[in-house]
Amino acid sequence: MLLHIVLIPATLGLIALVIRNRPLRWLLLIAGGVAHGISVVLLAMHRNGIPFNEWIGLDDTGLLFLSITSILFAAVSFYTILYLSREAGQTTQDAVEGFLFVNHPESIFIGCLLLFLSAMSLVCISRNFGLLWVAVEATTLASAPLISFHKHHRSLEATWKYLLICSVGIALALLGNFFLSYAGSGRLHLNVEALTSHAGQLNPLWLKASFIMFLVGYGTKMGLAPMHNWLPDAHSEAPSMVSTLLSGALLNCAFLGILRGHSVLSAAGLRNFSGELLVFFGLLSMLIAAVFIIHQPDYKRMLAYSSIEHMGILSLGIGIGGLSGTGAMLHATSHSLTKGMLFLCSGQLLHFYKTKNAADVRHVFKTLPITGFLWFAGFLAITGSPPFGLFTSELVIFKGIIENSRWFIAGFYLLFLFVIFIAMAKIVIPMTFGQAEQTMESNSQPNDFREQIWFSGPSVALCAGVLILGLYIPSRLWQFMAHAAQNAGGR
Amino acid sequence: MNNSLWAEILVLGVVLTNFRLLASSRLFGLIDTMQIQAIALCAIPIALAPSASALSFRLVMLALITLAVKGWILPRLLKHAVQKTNIQREIEPFVGYDFSIMVGIILLGVCFLISYRFGTDANLSSHFLLPSALFSLLIGLMIIISRRKALTQVIGYLTMENGVYLFGAALAIKEPLLVEMGVLLDVFVAVFIMGITIYQINSEFDHIDTDRLSELKD
After folding, report:
1. What is the pTM of this model?
2. How far apart are CA B72 and CA A197, in angstroms?
3. What string of H, E and C letters represents the secondary structure of A264-318?
4. Residue A387 CA, distance from chain mean position
């Protein structure tokens, strides 16, 4: 029994859409998060007893991404309850421009959150390319209403771009499915096992064409440059917990679509073709991210571009393969946890400072000590400083590149990481340090700078996770990551 | 009179409706053209079947459901959105109608050229299918890029989706029924949510010109 991981959140989500009782709805959200978490733990323990069938199955890669999704959702569901109780009123003031707006109905928000979780779980467990496509498109549809929860002009603009660009992208991935089917002359099922075991019979030309379509289609969803245009808008306009899920869970799920294609190409002996494409788009994404992070005025957009950077690193790591592949899996985990923590902190900053402009946010350490501490720790973590998990994973990827003696790629990789570190430091350090000025205090009287400690709970938990990953990786976990990378077409 | 001739007539219909989509400014007209295209599209897999005995339950079922969704429900949904937003025509597209048609003709030629390169080794069911599929896909993309109104862009998305469907017919892809249903459901929900979003954009901005949705940028 594996499908329950999809059905439980879907059922709860549908119930949440219709019931009127507010506390009950909140309870459903928490219940969905907890039930999903417990199911994932149980699945991880008894995984060998579950047979793969034509449609679904849980391999190491799927389990890893499913666990990441589950952890983030648990953190987000806790934060969401606090957030919604803070926005309990009928109208909310826009944090940036100060106008009043009405939220979309809360039932739709919570219902869609749970349906979103369900769709992402389906992505992680599907073994059939057709089902995978359906699930990835379902994630787009379930998450679009989440982005426009705050019903105002900017969020609607972001939602429209997200819907249109991702739907068009995903339509191309469907074309990839057709090409893949044609490569097998229509005789093979579009099942990952069937395709990898009969990879020799596949027509290489159509197989390559299908991978290009997957890369463009799912790459749009994943935010690989140059198909990333929707991402900064959606991430910066969505409520912070939605940005967390988009960045930490959804982008990974889209990456899984590319990885499935990559594993088929690897089995067919075309690993070089797909690997080089992944490396190229990975480096390009890092470059674009670096260019846009420099002098980025908006701190939520800075985080969004940082997501593009890290998706580039994942793609690069898997493209190189070997040790880098393992590093990429570790990187996916650490990045999701860190980005979750940063986006949740950014929600707090936005609430207190009422601006997304980094230049107007000052001395966070003084005014909001816990958020400030987490924000700064998150900055160190996301740029790959020790002792956090991303330092380890970026180092492992680097080592993998060196082992393959790809010197130019190693050089560019280090250069982009370095540039992004400096650029982000220039934005984040002035935000956190400095003394409280008197004028500032009087201006922002109505803001009520009293830190709401509970809001930091989920971020603290995520921060602890990244720290542990940086300090100590149990050998079993390492083995697991290595298997996950191998399943995804590593060497 | 063999079946493949019927299929080719239908494919020709799809190509012609694509040109109609490029040339038309009235949103109702666009939606009607979409509807005709969808009906032609659904009949193609049936026309391609070599004999009446080759028509499986799956094939007929699929054609009927696709017809219901793309030929009936979606056009109704879109017309409803047009009435709600009270915006009847596409005014001043980025690319003019005459020029659009010129580009369309060139694209059609390019599609045939590309398809001959790919199609030589492929045992395709019809020679027109692959270029027409590619053509629909590109026309869809072109409509999305070159038109202002959000509703026209949805029509572009559907045209593109039709192109993908035609690819499936051209390459004789037999996906399991469950997947085909899932794909249709996704397209339906996508258009549904796009419709709602358009409605919200209209009530927030008093227009649905996507080029004026340009506040978010770097």
Report:
1. 0.94
2. 42
3. HHHHCCCHHHHHHHHHHHHHHHHHHHHHHHCCCCEHHHHHHHHHHHHHHHHHHHH
4. 22
- Nearest alpha carbon to residue A302 among A365, A378, A369, A251: A378
B55: left (phi over 0), alpha (psi -120 to 50) or beta: beta
Q: Across the interface, do B171 and A182 touch by the CB < 8 Å criterion?
A: yes
Rg (CA), chain A: 22
d(CA A15, CA A28): 8
Q: Is the pLDDT of residue A78 over 50?
A: yes
pLDDT of A384 above 50: yes
Structure tokens that stand for A31 in this block: 């219940």
Residue A490's CB is within 10 A of a number of other CB atoms, namely: 28
Count of residues making up chain A = 491
DSSP 3-state of A4: helix
Q: In chain B, which among 132-161 make CB contacts under 8 A with chain A?
A: 137, 141, 144, 150, 153, 157, 160-161
Neighbours of B54 (CB within 10 A): 11
Backbone angles phi, psi at A30, to 5 degrees: -60, -45
Q: Please enumerate in sequence order all residues whose Cβ is within 8 A of that of A154, keeping only pairs 6 or more positions apart, or say none.
A: A96, A237, B215, B216
- First and final CA of chain A: distance in angstroms? 31
Omega of the bond leading into B50 within 30 degrees of 0 (cis): no
B199 vs A contacts (CB less than 8 Å): none
Q: Residues of B194-217 as b/e, b for ≥16 C-beta within 10 angstroms?
A: bbebbbbbbebeeebbbeebeebe
Contact B160 A232 (CB under 8 A): no
Give me the pLDDT at residue A28, please: 94
Q: What residues 98-117 of chain A have any CB closer than 8 A to a CB of chain B?
A: none
pLDDT score for A445: 45
Largest CA distance in chain B: 59
